[in-house]
Design brief:
Layout lengths: L1 H16 L3 H9 L5 H8 L6 E3 L22 E8 L2 E8 L10 H17 L3 E5 L10 H17 L5 E5 L2 E3 L4 H5 L2 E5 L4 E3 L3 H8 L5 H5 L1 H6 L6 E3 L2 H14 L24 H4 L10 H8 L6 E3 L7 E8 L2 E8 L10 H16 L4 E7 L6 H6 L1 H14 L4 E10 H6 L9 E4 L4 E3 L3 H8 L1 H6 L3 H16 L4 H4 L5 E2 L5 H12 L17
Parallel strand pairs: 3-4, 4-5, 5-7, 6-8, 7-9, 12-13, 13-14, 14-15, 14-16, 15-17
Antiparallel strand pairs: 1-2, 2-3, 10-11, 11-12
């Protein structure tokens, strides 16, 4: 038995060490950590349990029969993050460039199946060269198995993709199907076709980073929710995100109460919002004042920044924040903002995270680019997401709330449980100036002094239809509140709604706008 144990130890050491020092050195030369170092950063110390460590491929041809390393280029298993079980599969670029073959894929399938069965999140650490060409269609079928499992697990367990190297071709669709994508600048790229193919087909010369780097997907395409300068920062935030998510859709997110008083007053909010409705301000300052310890974990911070989406805590309970950002494009809704918020609302609803919507929106962005780009169907995605959400939903109207954008931002009319408004709120079909120009167009044009007539009509419209209590008088706002009491009001409202139970009509699934 001692001889057998010595053999086991030697085999295990070889599997953990990897193929060669040369391969490890090459990985470091690329500025990347090894697969084992990444796993150590992800999990609580000493908690990782590897499965199928000695798995090897069975392929032959093209010299594969002479190269059969342990793990087959992917490390799979589970561990704990802040004491809760999390599964992982992580490509080892040192072995076959992290490419996916039949055995490699089966290991991933096993980890995904176990995660779903155990009701635990799964994290993928992507650093692979795509399908293993030498294995042909078997490799492609392996990707199909991953994609189908991504969809099966969607909304059941959290799925997080971390891109730490190349992720090309069909491999990109797995991250696209998961809940969150993390990328590290300088080492991570995602694209369907690489620079060589792009140049051959279109004549366009582009680098890997320009085509699909973290900056591109974080700020242009929106494919990545988070971008970082180092792997250490990235994996630390993966851990933090996991601490705010439930293990599965049957559990609530972990409650972590700190020292921030639940009913702390927000006196600074009284001065924070400018009286001039056209003057910009940073909604981030409002959010920081309201949530626990001023901490917001913002999603897609660099993309569609005219709307802010993120996770925070109120009295220790996780909430999803959706807020217009007046500092960017005056806080209007456009195609990308609607897509970003809709996706976030769906994620929160899937995992039982209550929604707090902070409204200061002048409308949808006008113009042919938006109309031709499909603002109608894209805006409808956000409307659909809110209407379909059964989690507690609380709306707070800070200032402007005009037209269809007001309705879409979780108004009472589409199912918000509670709606509160600050005394500075203006809920209307449109701004007073625009409304006066439409309603009193002929009268203004025929007046002896058109400007004076316009000013008078604008004032009348504001007094009659845009005062803070107009919506409250009609039951569309539950209360007009002191801004300094916003945190306290939200804490009490969400505590009351915590046991909310809403059932949707029986159906296979809805047909959301595309």
């Amino acid at each position: 038995m001692y001889h057998k144990l010595a053999e086991l130890d030697a085999r295990r050491e070889q599997a953990v060490t990897g193929p060669s020092q040369r391969a490890t050195k090459a990985q470091r030369t690329r500025g990347k950590l090894t697969v084992r170092e990444r796993i150590e950063l992800l999990f609580d110390e000493g908690s990782f349990r590897e499965i199928e460590q000695f798995r090897r491929h069975r392929a032959t041809g093209f010299g594969l029969e002479d190269r059969r390393p342990d793990t087959d280029g992917v490390v799979t298993g589970w561990g704990t993050v802040y004491g809760r079980t999390v599964f992982v599969y992580a490509h080892d670029f040192r072995i076959f460039g992290g490419s996916l073959g039949e055995a490699h894929a089966e290991k991933i399938h096993k980890a995904m199946d176990l995660a779903l069965a155990a009701g635990a999140p799964i994290v993928s650490l992507n650093d692979g060269a795509g399908a293993r060409i030498q294995e042909g269609v078997s490799a492609l079928a392996g990707y199909g198995g991953i994609f189908s499992r991504n969809v099966k697990a969607s909304g059941v367990i959290p799925q997080i993709s971390v891109v730490l190297g190349p992720c090309a071709g069909g491999a990109t669709y797995s991250p696209a199907l998961t809940d969150f994508v993390f990328m590290v600048r300088g080492i991570a790229q995602m694209y369907i076709t690489g620079p060589d193919v792009v140049h051959a087909v279109t004549g366009e010369a582009v680098t890997h980073e320009e085509l699909g780097g973290a900056q591109v997907h974080g700020g242009v395409s929106g494919a990545s929710a988070f971008s970082y300068d180092t792997e250490q920062e990235c994996l630390a935030d993966v851990r933090f995100l996991l601490s705010m998510l439930p293990s599965n859709n049957r559990e609530l997110p972990p409650v972590r109460r700190g020292g921030d008083p639940a009913h702390r007053r927000n006196d600074s909010l009284i001065e924070l919002i400018p009286r001039n409705p056209n003057q910009a301000y940073d909604i981030g300052a409002v959010i920081e004042e309201i949530v626990d310890d001023g901490e917001l974990f913002e999603v897609h911070q660099q993309w569609a920044s005219n709307i802010v989406c993120g996770l925070a805590r109120l009295d220790g309970h996780v909430v999803g924040i959706v807020a217009n950002q007046p500092a960017v494009l005056a806080g209007v809704l456009d195609i990308h903002a609607a897509e970003k918020a809709a996706r976030f609302v769906q994620m929160c609803d899937a995992f039982g995270i209550p929604l707090v919507t902070l409204v200061d929106v002048p409308g949808f962005l006008p113009g042919t680019a938006q109309e031709h780009g499909g603002i109608i169907r894209h805006g409808a995605k956000l409307l659909y997401a809110y209407c379909n959400a059964t989690v507690p939903r609380v709306q707070v109207i800070l200032r402007k709330a005009y037209g269809g954008a007001y309705i879409v931002m979780d108004s009472r009319s589409i199912g918000a449980d509670l709606s509160f408004a600050w005394p500075s709120n203006e809920i209307a079909v449109m701004g007073a100036a625009g409304a006066a120009n439409v309603v009193f167009r002929k009268e203004i044009a025929q007046a002896a002094d058109p400007e004076s007539a316009r000013s008078q009509r604008i004032k009348e419209y504001q007094q009659q239809l845009m005062h803070p209590y107009y919506a409250a008088e009609r039951g569309l706002v539950d209360d007009v509140i002191d801004p300094a009491s916003t945190r306290s009001v939200l804490v009490d409202a969400l505590a009351m709604l915590r046991a909310k139970n809403t059932e949707l009509p029986a159906r296979k699934h809805g047909n959301p706008p595309m």
